[in-house]
């Protein structure tokens, strides 16, 4: 199974949608809430190549992007191979 990391905020609808998609796939992931741990925000921005919005999603240390990017990968049939 893939190593999945997602940076989120509690009241972010895109974060909720991305987490729901990952949960629907049965994926275990590590979630970092940058609203609860603001010290992680600079780390997220650096890893995401300067992107500062949430969610920021990484699969096996590959930056996937945000919720729309994750949904697009799934719609194109490219998410499941990354997760397996």
Automatic annotation (TrEMBL):
Q: Does the keyword Electron transport apply?
A: yes
Its protein name is Glutaredoxin
Regarding protein family, the annotation reads: Belongs to the glutaredoxin family.
Q: Which Pfam families match?
A: Glutaredoxin
Q: What does this protein do?
A: Has a glutathione-disulfide oxidoreductase activity in the presence of NADPH and glutathione reductase. Reduces low molecular weight disulfides and proteins.
The answer to keyword Aminoacyl-tRNA synthetase applying to this record is: no
Q: Give the source species.
A: Alkalimonas cellulosilytica
> Which InterPro entries does the record match to this protein?
GLR_AS, Glutaredoxin, Glutaredoxin_subgr, GRX_bact, Thioredoxin-like_sf
Keywords linked to the UniProt accession? Cytoplasm, Disulfide bond, Electron transport, Redox-active center, Transport
Glutaredoxin domain boundaries: 4-64
